[in-house]
Amino acid sequence: MNYLKFVVKEIVTEKKDIFLSVLFGFLAGITAIALFGSSGYLVSKAAFAPPLYTLAFLIAGLKLMGFARALSRYGERYFSHRATFTMLSNIRVSFFEKLEPLAPRIFQKYRSGDLLARIVGDVESLQNFFLRVFYPPIILLLVFLSTIFFVAFYSWWIAFILFAGLIVTGLVIPAWFALRQKRLESRIREARAELSTDVTEFLYGFLDLKIYQKLQGKKQRLQGASDWYITEQEREGKTAMFNHSINSMVSFTVSWLVLVVGAYFVAAQQLDGVFLAMLVMISLTMFENATPMAVLPGHWEDNRRAAARLYSVVEEEAEPSTLTEEKLPADQALSLAFQEVTFTFPGETRPTVKEVSFQLPAGSKTAIVGPSGSGKSTLMQLLLGITRSDKGDLLAGGVNLNQIEKEDLWAKSNVVLQENHFFYGTIRDNLLLANRALTDEAMKVALDRVELGHFSLDDAVYEKAENLSGGERQRLAIARAMLKGERLWLFDEPAFSVDALTEKIIYDHIFRQAKRDTLVLISHRLTGLENMDKIIVMEQGEIIETGSFDELMDKKGYFYEMKQIEKNILM
Amino acid sequence: MDDLKKLSKAHHHDRTLLFIIAFFTGVMVIGQAYLFVAAVDRVFLQGYSFLEVLPVLLGLLAVMIARAGLTYWSGRTGVQMAAKVKRDFRQSLLDKYSRNPIQASFKGQSGQKVSVMMDAVDEIDSYFSQYVPQVMQTSVVPLMVIGTAFYHHIYTGIIMLITAPFIPIFMAIIGMKTKKKSEEQMDEMAAFSGRFLDILQGLTTLKLFGRAKQQHEAIRQSSLNFRDATMEVLKIAFISSLSLEFISMLSIGIIALEVGIRLIVFESISFFTAFFVLVLAPEFYNSLRDLGSAFHTGRGSMGAAKKVADELTETEQVVEWGDTTFSHTDKPPEIELKGVGFRYKEEGFALEGINAVLSSNQQIAIVGRSGAGKTTLLHLIAGLIGPTEGRIEVDGRSLFSYEVAGWFDQLSYISQHPYLFAGTIADNIAIGANEGADRDEIERAAEKAGIQELIKSLEAGLDTQIGEAGRGLSGGEKQRVALARAFLKNPSVVLFDEPTTGLDLHTERILQASIETLAENSTVITVAHRLHTIKNADQILFLDNGKLIAQGSHNELLASTPEYWDMVASHRGGIAE
Questions:
Q1: What is the CATH number of domain A4-315?
Q2: CB 3.0–4.6 Å: which of A37, A368, A502, B85 could bond A282 by disulfide?
């Protein structure tokens, strides 16, 4: 399936700019031909010593055409680039429209996290589609056909040669190159991927490689991969050069044929010699328009790939729409339940969550604890409907999560994840995300509660809040959740980078506000869990213990031992 | 820029070849014009028959094909040169990094180094594959053309000579202006183009707060603003090529006028000469103009070259090893630190004046608050970095007088986040072995490290593929694979950077038991976080702010060192046992 059709769809909406680019492109091409053609004619004519005024007239015309050509070229560049960037904007928006309903579930599928950077890069690389793939053939066709039409008045034969040249340079050669390009590209990508793995392992795994004396071997492997990659690049570079040279050779040859046929007809007195130079000059200039066709296959392949990657991401079946959409009750604490829920990440053999069942009554406070990799965070993803269980049911307020619109669930919960996003702007902008109608006072109070009272609402937040520390970001996220004021609290390691004392102060505020609400807290720290109604202990995707803090401590089981170890650890 | 110039000088063989190709290209350019004009002249004015001009025509065809062939050859040489340079650069980077990147991994710069080694090296390509060949062409072909013009019709030559400098001058002026303007626009452009990524990255947050739908307008607006900012810069670039075109056109126009007047009014030159210089003139100006666009591509490479050069000139503290054989006895070596200090360049991070004797077969714990220099000390003992002051002695001789292989053969290092390589579990364990390990040994090591159960639960067992930094294994499992490496190696010195939290109970227990097993036959030096490990240690090195402020057993330190008491007490809610 060719995903480029999506791109074309976005392109054709910019009719005016396309029209202007094509118009000016055509004018630039045709005036160049006219310019050189007429200079050939002029000099031939001059050989017969015509009256001076014809010459003056022709030279003036020549100048005019020269200026027209330069200006048209300018117009072409201007409008084609403007069109391109407008199209990029359209592509971004339309892509976002497709992606938005699928998020955040779709991010789960791509764990490597490079998805977003790739999307941005792919959209950028589509800028070549209009400039280098879409419209050069249009210009080529228009310029060639009109020139051939003109030439046909002088000689049918020469017109025919030019037409054959058009077919070869505009169609046959690009198609042939496209085939070769495809093979080369895939080898280059393979080589690059291998080198990239080796470089990453070399640098990140350096310590282990060094100690275990595998550095030399790795280095050799890396060199081998680098050589292979460079060889493939070299092959591609040479092929590109070859394509370019073949294209210009064919153009030269066609012009030469024009000269040969022209010379034959002149010698045979079937063509006026004064036109000979003109016709050859026309041919030479005309084929300059065919140069972009040599690089077209490469760009075509790049763009096809970029479009395929982009649109295959969003091609996903949309969230199966639930027929019986139920609304969650507003302003009311919700109960939550897992019934034998199992989930395995695609491509992995071991389930991350295995037959997990539990009941959390409305208004209860629950902590889910366990070592890293035990599946705690996946429980949160399942609960938020970001990840769909393979088996088993999840209930919120007694309603199956599949029958609840996710937006409704999210609207009715205060969520803090491990990584929370902040946008470029001010603290105020980022807090207002919780609720547009918040007053400055309310926001100040929330900042105080998370011990961020020293910040002003007008303080700048850079991209991804990189000017804030990890702890400050987490506290800001908690403040944002507190300001939202819904009745379901879902926290995933909200205070991972916050020191113990501050954590306790913040938790006290949260518990006060959430007194009658349902709260689920995922934590790998075992401090401050004394007041929880229930603690669920996870290991390897399974619940291995449940109970209140005291119950678990009395039982002297897994939780008790983890607690002992934690007491034992000096940070 | 200078780095690249120097480098391209170094490839003078290729440069000479490019020069020769450029010369022949010049010959072909002139020859093509000459033969073309000759053919037209003979048929059109001299009244030759077709067969009489045929040799000229065939010659013309040969010249045209040769010209295309030379273009290919020149480009090919450039591509080859680029490949050589990239190979050398990557090789130098690799050598550089393999000598001493430990400091870099301290600073979390590995990602940046990956990008230098992959992308920056790749970006250098166009300088050699495009810019250098083009410079060669431009420094030869126009000279030959202008020479020919002088020879055939001196006035054309003079006009060329006068007008030609306008092109580079104009290009430079506009280049400078664009640079200023584009720098002004750059921040704005970066902000607009970053906006899309920002929104995508924040999509989960936006959805959770029900604000995703409103973002379309923000994306559209920032994209359009980006377009406008970019167009501002591009407009200048387009106007510059417009003016260059005007210059070359005007110049060609002047040549045409001069020739035309002479041909018609004074009848002082022949049709042949007039036509010939008219065909040559565009070749002259085009060649000059092409340099401009090549220069543009070359500029991108220069930034990349600077990045690579910066990496290569970064000073390093190389560890030099000696050639004394490390005698392998049953008794683990005795390690002595004599006034050992380490400073990473001029700035901050330092250890100073560490004196300690780490006796054979002892369990040593390095303790201190985060940032005290614990891991640096471990790296020093391992010989991964060299001390900037003092010396480390092993069995009475400087550590660095030994053969490096002999020392590392005795050593296992288990870091907080062991790195798992792409490959099977068995491969990842086998990396610990000094020689090729057989399957039985690997299985035994796996068993000792408590990963047998995990392996059994996997379909492919030991041959299960892990990789991409060990995806699919939990933190505890990775630790146990690292332990298995150590068991396979059977070292006499074990260095262990104890993980802080997040391990499962099973791993915790295995770790404790394993360290005890390993300690039977070796010296174990642990950066310790667990009171259990600390209490078990024969000797504790207590670091604070890069200095060793106390050493001794747990009870000794509790009694003698208030800072130590504080650290233990603050954690245990005031009860130091």
A1: 1.20.1560.10
A2: A37
